[in-house]
Design goal:
Strand order of the largest sheet: 1-4
Shape: globular
Number of helices: 4
Length: 146
């Protein structure tokens, strides 16, 4: 009851408990199974990249809520979270945006340096994030060091 509307996105197909579905469709099915009314879930099914997901979702939100200020939560995997939030901040100038890490079994930051597939995904996300900052798609961001 806290959220009025959900937009699912993601085009990669996976074997899921609901069959071989796109991430978008699998997320929607899971949400319905967990009690979210189907009429509260919209599917963004036109995008081929995350940046397009944001702009298409923005159009969907404007259709439902007009141009008033919104509070948006971006829910995604740990390695994809920073880029998604930064793209959302660039797309939704008039919104409060925060990120929520999804609990995925392969999404353990402690294993990023040991699992080759996860390391490759993290490297790709980092490269894309830096490229977006370099080309002005998103604002620059601070580099954090441990």
């Amino acid at each position: 009851g806290q959220c009025k509307l959900f937009i699912t996105a993601g085009g990669v197909y996976h074997d899921t408990p609901f069959g071989c579905l796109s991430e978008m469709a699998a997320i929607k099915q899971y949400m319905i199974k967990e009690g979210v009314p189907a009429e509260c879930i919209l599917e963004e099914d036109l995008a081929t990249i995350t940046r397009e997901n944001m702009f298409n979702s923005k159009s969907m939100l404007i259709q439902h809520f007009g141009t008033r200020k919104l509070k948006l939560a971006i829910v995604t995997s740990y390695f994809h979270l920073v880029r998604s939030v930064k793209l959302a901040e660039a797309c939704f100038e008039n919104a409060d945006i925060f990120g929520v890490k999804a609990d995925l079994p392969f999404d353990n930051p402690e294993e990023f340096h040991t699992d080759p597939a996860t390391l490759d995904r993290v490297t790709t996300e980092s490269r894309l994030l830096c490229n977006y900052a370099k080309t002005g798609i998103i604002k620059d961001f601070p580099i954090l060091h441990k």
